[in-house]
Amino acid sequence: MSSSAPQHPRPAGGRHRLWSVDEHLADVLAAVRPLEPIELQLLDAQGCVLVEDVTVPVALPPFDNSSMDGYAVRTADVQGASEEFPAVLAVIGDVAAGSGELPTVGPGQAARIMTGAPLPPGAEAVVPVEWTDGGTGGGAASGMTPASAAPQGAAGEVRVHRAAEARAHVRSRGSDVQAGDLALAAGTVLGPPQIALLAAIGRGTVRVRPRPRVVVLSTGSELVQPGEALTAGTIYDSNSFALAAAARDAGAIAYRVGAVADDADTLRSTIEDQLIRADLLVTTGGVSVGAYDVVKEALTAAGSGDGDEPAGGGVDFRKLAMQPGKPQGFGTVGPDHTPLLALPGNPVSSYVSFELFVRPAIRTLMGLPESEVSRPGVRAVLKADEPLRSPAARRQFLRGKYDAEAGTVTPVGGSGSHLIAALAHADSLMVVPEDVTSVEPGAELEVILLG
């Protein structure tokens, strides 16, 4: 199901120039196309984007039915009824949900009726059982005796203590939707309520764009899986968990691969093995200028050799005018030109890079409209004790806590790209533009909402 990457112009200079955030994002989105539609069973389609308008084949509800447990009556028979002077009606039978043959309610008669059961012929309203004696001959009833325990309840007499207007407690045929109505429009993301509606109108399958399959790989010989013991010089692999969770949050099916050691051949082999289940590959770590930056070594060699213009697939490694997340890689790999984004290894850098570039790619593969591809942004007033500092000619993304009611945003933690604890308490990213080096408290700035 991988989308082929079309040829598209890249700004001149390749990896030897400084790319803007917007240029890099445009380059990524130009290389991904929405996945081809498929027909899926309803539960398998959850989280997918509908590719066709769905109309209602039958009215909902398909027949007049009761919204209460009680008695189906003619309004004339209960007119003026009260506790002192109840209307006494003959009970002619039960009408349960799913009933086929229905009794006809004539003058002076009533039928016990259950919630969801069809309104029988002759009846004009439903009197809740609490407005009656329940056929016991006593005071107000609190409920009905189960039919299995007292089948005689479907006969005898019932005393009704209150009058009922016509159509009282009756759900009319088509009161939810009418046959021919638009149930769901193409482009709708199918959540539980939408799945419920499709089932209610009798659709067993639906045509959707599938959720993208995203494979996440961490690289680094120093990485240890959570739950294992740390040894000297090792750290726990958090990036692959963070990015796999972020991919799921974006709407993808995520596959997390255990950390790959700093060996180019091993990484290339691992990527080749994962291509069979990937619509998008995401690596983290190994994209800078160090001697052990294995992703750059492995994937630059897989392309044209110079890292500027991959021939028939390959990955560009470039520097972006942003902080954190300056080193980035992007291109395609494998026979199907599967898109690959290579993110930095520092936890905050990788997460910010995911939000800015990978999430939009996933949402584009899903077929969502452009307005829903990236996280929403708002303007907010900086609430801080001191100015925010930012390097010149870099777009900086700082962690923040947004207060929607007050319209303010407060910094969380410092600017270090390793400060993952602060990231866990942030719900937004504060954006400092390239031409701004200081933001004073009380100034307004752009905020990307992460929740």
**What is the terminal separation in angstroms?**
29 Å
Strand residue percentage: 25-35%
Question: What is the count of helical runs?
Answer: 8
Which whole number gives the mean pLDDT?
89
Number of strands: 29
Quaternary state of this entry equals single chain
Structure explained in plain terms:
This protein is of the alpha/beta class. The chain has helices spanning 21-30, 75-78, 192-200, 239-250, 264-274, 294-302, 347-366, 420-424, and strands at residues 18-19, 38-41, 49-50, 54-55, 65-66, 70-73, 87-95, 109-113, 125-128, 157-160, 170-171, 182-184, 205-209, 213-219, 223-224, 235-236, 253-260, 280-284, 314-320, 322-323, 327-333, 338-343, 377-382, 388-389, 395-403, 408-411, 428-432, 438-439, 444-449. It has a 7-stranded mixed sheet, sandwiched between helices. Strands 9-6-8-7-10 form a 5-stranded mixed sheet. A 5-stranded mixed barrel has the order 23-26-25-27-29. α4 packs parallel to α7 and α5 packs across α6 (294-302). 41% of the residues are buried. Residues 2-9 and 301-312 have low confidence and may be disordered.
